[in-house]
Amino acid sequence: MRAQKGTCLALLCGAVIGALASFAARGLDAGQVTGVPPRLGPGGVHRAGRDDGGPVLTGIDVLVREEFKSLRNLRIGLITNHTGVDRFGRRTADLLRNAPDTKLVALFSPEHGLGGLLDQADIKDGVDRRTGLRIHSLYGKTRRPLPEMLRGIDTLVFDIQDIGTRFYTYISTMGYAMEVAAEHKLRFVVLDRPNPISRLGAAGPLADADRLAFTAYQTIPLIHGMTIGELARLFKHEFGVDCDLQVVPMAGWKRSMWWDETGLTWVNPSPNMRNPTQALLYPAVGQLEASNLSVGRGTDQPFERFGAPWIDPSRGGHRTLAAALNAAALPGLRFAPIVFTPTASKHKGQRCGGVFITVTDRERVRPAEAGMALAWHLRHLFGKAFDHDAVLNMIRNAETHRVWTSAKAPSAVSEAWTEPLRQFEVKRRRHLLYR
Length: 435
Hints:
alpha/beta, Aspartate Aminotransferase, domain 1, 7-stranded mixed sheet, 11 helices, 12 strands, 30% helix
C-alpha cells in the first residue's frame, strides 16, 4: 500500500511538472508574453503589483469597457504589434475585428513586425493568419502608410507599447502615420499605454532640428517622460502634425508608477527589450549603440551589459573600466567586470571585456547622465579604440557632443541641456493626461 501511494504521488508530481512545462513552452512559442520575475527594489524589497482588484486599464481595456462606442461605424486601419493586447492577453486586432458596428480593414506593423520577433532591416508585407487581413509593413519599402494602403480606411488606430526613449522607433512610426492621417484627412486614434520609465520625467539633450531621423522624430529630449497618447498630443499641438486626433486614456495609471505597480503583464516590446530593468537602462546604454561596442545583443541580458574586444580582458581592461565607473558613484548603479561572447549582432563570436550593470536603487538612476558618463570614461580609458564620434548618432545634439568630448569630468555634461530641457518642460506640461 505504501509503495502504491509513493507511485501515485510520483505520477501526480510528474503530471503537474509536465503540465507546467507544457504551459511554459506554449508561452515561449508565442514569443509574446514573458513572465518576468520581480526585480528587487532598494533594500531587496519587492513592491508588488496592483493586485487589490484595481488594475490599470490601458486604452484598449477602456475601449472594451465602453463597448467600442467611439469607433462605431468606422473603417479602421490598425497600427499595432504583439504588444497590442488587453489585460487578458487578447489581441487588439481580434477585439476590433469582432467589435460591433466597426470594420477592421487592414493592419500596419512597425519595426520588428506584427509578432515582434524580427530583428532585421527590411520587413515584408504579409497576411495575419487569425484575421486574414493584409499586414502593411512600415519598416520595409516605406515607413509611412502609402495612399494605396489607405483605400477603404477612414480611421487609423495606434496601439503599440513604447518604452519612453526618443530613439526607440515606435514613436516615429506613430508620428509619420499622424502626418499621413493629416494629409488624407483621416481620424487618428491612440489607445494609450504606460510609459515604464515615466517616473524619471523628461531628461537629457533635445534632438537638433537639423538632425531629425527615424531615431529622432522631433526636437524632444532623449527621455521624454510621456505616454504614447501624450506624445501624440505634443506632436499635434507643438509640432504642427495637425490630424484629427483622439486619445483613449488609461484608467488607474499614475505617472509615479513603475511597471510592476501597474498589475499589467510585461510583453517584450522588441526582441532585445526583455524586462523593465532593461527599459530603465536603455536610455543610458543605448547612447553607445552606434559606436563599436556590443550593448549585449546576442546575449541573454541586452542593455544590462556592454563591452568590446578592445576592452581587452587579458590585460584587465574590464576590471579597470568597472573600477572607474564604480568610483564615479553613478546614482543607483553598480558595475561588475565580465567577459562575454555575443552570439549575434556586433562582435558576434568575439570575446569581449566589459561590465554588467546592476540597478541598486531605481529611484536614483539618471540614465541620460549615466550614458554620458559611460561614454566619457570609455574615451578617457581607451582613447581612439572607442569610436566616440558615433555617440552623436544617438544623442543627436551637437552641443552636448562637443561638451562631453571636451569636459574634464562627466558631471559637467548635463549643463549643455539644462535650459533647452526647461523650455521643453513648458510645452510638455500642456499635454499631460495623468497626475
